[in-house]
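_Per-residue structure_
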Amino acid sequence: MAFMAQLWLPIVVSAVLVFVVSAITHMLIPARQTEWGHLAKESALQEALGGAKPGLYGFPMPADVGQRGKPAAMKRWAEGPSGWLALVPAGPINMGRNLGLSFLMNLFVSIMAAYIAAHALGMAPHYRAVFRVIGSIGFLAYAVGMIYESIWFWRPWKTLAYTAVDALLYAMVMGGTFGWLWPR
């Protein structure tokens, strides 16, 4: 944990800056506002889902796990509509909770990047070496997981592209911040 004592400033500053860049990209870039579509029969869907608990659902999805690969279940899936559904608790979105958890995630990514870089680079590396290592870790942390969402759960590839651009920005902010504030 010695790295924390030496790298606390770039850890915190990079987490704050990534949080700010994330807010800017999600609020001010118009393309991000088109990621989520609208269903024509939204009211009927809400009524049909009334009483369902928050969680992840697939449909059509037999309740018996053993029936999921059977021909009848596969036929229903093929005929559609079929998909994945994430239900959240009723009520307004708790932005304070979500923003707080997002910041904690940014802080965690910065701590892990600092840990890896401190062990890989030592405590007196050149700015470019810090930028490369921290930036690479940041890009992996913020971009790679979304690829699985696109592969397995049909999250649009357009969204993955937006996420990759965001991740590149976050990585550059992290790399630059660590390079600038790394103790010499």
Observations:
- The mean pLDDT is 93.
